[in-house]
Amino acid sequence: MARNCQLNNRWVVPYNPYLLRMFNCHINVEICSSIKAVKYLFKYIYKGHDRVSVSVTDKVDEVEIDEIKQYKDARWVTPPKALWRIYGFELSKMHPPVLQLQLHLPNMHMVSYHGMEKIKNVINRDGTERSMLTAYFEANNLYEKARGILYRDFPEYYTWQRRGKSWQERKRAAVFQVGRIVSAHPAEGERYYLRVLLNHVTGATSYEDLRTVDGQVMPTFREAAEKRGLIEADNT
């Protein structure tokens, strides 16, 4: 009883009677309205394996304390999990597959190279100047069909070729992939406004084309986003 109201377990844990009856098991219902709900769902997958502490002693009244002998930090594997691993079943699965889309300002993309390699050789290497985003601009220039697709939706229709660093039209329509642009905080400035534009503007063939609004090339991505009405100006 709380505030003259009769309460029971259904007021503590959110549940769905339809799901409980259908699956006949314990089910908690979480509304994904914030990042906390997502963390709650995925922390069980990535928290690591179950553990158990075991104390091993030879005598009950042992005077000498040897922590190394007494204490063992071991891994605990239950019989169902052991059989699941023995038969080689999948422990976790993500569907549909998600492709992380690169986000960077002009000439600020990441380049991987060996620690002993000379910087001059890295710069002159073929394809160093290309990235996933610049290849997206090139694809819009080459393929007319691509110009009506947002950057985030591009993996649904085109596949990313790592070797050639290019987008190739997807041949098998049955294969489905979701694209997610790397997140950017508003405090990052131009990189954040670049992300805003990529999420709303299709058919851009270059950074300059992305900043072009009604035939006018805006000096910054922020001004381009303001001109398109995607963000509010500071004087509002």
Q: How would you describe what is shown here?
A:
The protein folds into two domains: 13-49 and 73-93, no CATH class; 98-228, no CATH class. 29% of the residues lie in helices and 13% in strands. It contains nine helices and eight strands. A two-stranded antiparallel ribbon has the order 1-2. A two-stranded parallel ribbon has the order 3-6. Strand 7 (212-213) and strand 8 (216-217) form a beta hairpin. The relative contact order is 0.08. The mean pLDDT is 83.
Q: How do the strands and helices of this protein lay out in sequence?
A:
Layout: H1 17-23, H2 35-46, E1 51-55, H3 67-70, E2 71-75, H4 79-86, E3 98-101, H5 119-124, H6 132-142, E4 158-161, E5 166-169, E6 178-181, H7 190-198, H8 207-210, E7 212-213, E8 216-217, H9 221-227
Parallel strand pairs: 3-6
Antiparallel strand pairs: 1-2, 4-5, 7-8
Protein name: Helitron helicase-like domain-containing protein
What number is the mean pLDDT? 83
Instruction: Name the helix and strand elements from N-terminus to C-terminus, one letter apiece.
Output: HHEHEHEHHEEEHHEEH
- Total domain count: 2
Q: Write down the overall geometry.
A: extended
The percent range for strand residues is 5-15%
User: What is the CA–CA distance across the termini?
Assistant: 50 Å
Give the helix/strand class. alpha+beta
Low-confidence stretches: none
Organism: Aegilops tauschii subsp. strangulata (Goatgrass)
Protein name: Helitron helicase-like domain-containing protein
